[in-house]
Design a protein that fits this description.
- With 189 residues, the chain is mainly α.
- It has two domains: 84 residues, RNA polymerase sigma factor, region 2, helix turn helix motif (Rna Polymerase Sigma Factor, Chain: A, Orthogonal Bundle); 81 residues, Winged helix-like DNA-binding domain superfamily/Winged helix DNA-binding domain (Arc Repressor Mutant, subunit A, Orthogonal Bundle), CATH 1.10.10.10.
- The chain has eight helices and no strands.
- Helix 1 packs across helix 2, helix 2 crosses helix 4 and helix 3 crosses helix 4.
- The longest helix is centred in the last third of the chain and has 35 residues.
- It is globular.
- About 5% of the residues have low confidence.
């Protein structure tokens, strides 16, 4: 079923269109929820909330932008609501101790890391850092938008992004060093 037919059918509360929407976009939306929730049960709860909100607000979609982008925004907001409800966390507000970070960039050598490894490293971040990283880097929200959605200041968002990048670099360096050590040991045997 074409996306336009799915949208118009969902606006008319047609079950076949709703099922088509779930089957077509469910896996992608679940991936968004998983990225934010870091717990499969919470991710499924967020996905359920996401679909409830999609069907509730489908009439507000005016076909002026990307439908998939609209769905992703709902998935992000649903995930944030679930996280706030079940897994409270706090943000790091002070960025004065971030002088050790060299711009928060990950060196070019790390471009060889597989996507599933990056996902693994992201899951190792504290929830507040992972949220800001996902919202800024993956979803493309500005620090101002993140601040509004998470009820934090722009500078707190920036500080958490810098901390997330620094933590990722440390995690990747640690894993790289383990691989080097393993390779040396393996070559000596």
């Amino acid at each position: 079923m074409e996306v336009d037919l799915i949208i118009s059918g969902c606006k008319k509360s047609q079950k076949d269109a709703q099922e088509a929407l779930v089957h077509r976009f469910g896996p992608k939306l679940l991936a968004v929820c998983n990225r934010y929730c870091n717990d499969s049960n919470l991710a499924y709860d967020a996905l359920q909330e996401c679909f409830i909100n999609i069907f509730k607000y489908i009439h507000s979609f005016k076909s002026m932008g990307s439908f998939e982008g609209w769905l992703r925004k709902i998935a992000v907001r649903s995930s944030l609501a679930i996280i706030k409800k079940y897994k409270p966390f706090s943000f790091f507000g002070d960025s004065s101790d971030l002088d050790f970070i060299n711009g928060g960039t990950i060196p070019d050598a790390y471009e060889q890391i597989a996507l599933d490894e990056i996902y693994y490293f992201l899951q190792q971040l504290p929830p507040s850092l992972r949220l800001v990283f996902n919202m800024y880097i993956v979803e493309g929200y500005s620090h101002k938008e993140i601040g509004v959605m998470l009820k934090i200041t722009d500078s707190t968002s920036r500080a958490n992004l810098a901390r997330a990048r620094a933590k990722l670099v440390l995690l990747i360096n640690k894993e790289t060093q383990k691989r080097i050590n393993y390779s040396i040991i393996e070559n000596q045997i």
